[in-house]
């Protein structure tokens, strides 16, 4: 990496370009934004304490310090430098509101080995409105090994259809292990529910005889409802649309709850709606929720 090829300008600089928060004349180093429009005067001690990269830089042999320090032009723009230096110096910051602002901050903090700013950003990504983008949070958390944040984000992705084209770019940014772990979580929830729907008290979905009159019964309405449930879990593994609305409002559900024995003299209701809803809800609530 380079800091504008590590070229410093002459000792002269325009004082009007100094950022108001970083203009103390006691500062012995000046950092310049990549466009040269904003200067940040600070202390080598602060940079060496908060940045492994600067600690290495300033351990190199230095020429005698001039009365006015040279300007070191960085690769980052003014906004990124302001945020990083404010975090490093304990100054107030404006929290980022999108990952378009978070990602370059993380890149710069990682590049300059600034663990303090990294820890601050780690806390910021767990606040609104950044929490509304679980795939971006998951990508960041996996990249930096933030286990708790990655688990939380993986849970929030359960409301998303990972097969949708809308999420393709976000998924492509994930490492292979992170992507596979997320896909496995979504698939495991669907398959666990599929397996449970084949176990008692649910019927297998084939044919049987009515326990009341002995007429043959075809459980096709249950087969169709079960298929609908699995399809819904594939696009929204959270399962809330299944238990909260689907089992009450889907045409397949209504057909299931109204199904009766085909013997007109029997007319026994085939399925216990209340018990079926209870067991499915209990199953969904018990599914694995995070990677």
From TrEMBL:
InterPro entries: BTB/POZ_dom, SKP1/BTB/POZ_sf. PROSITE patterns: BTB. Residues 27-86 form the BTB domain. Pfam families: BTB. It comes from the Eukaryota. This is BTB domain-containing protein. The lineage of its organism: Eukaryota, Fungi, Dikarya, Basidiomycota, Agaricomycotina.
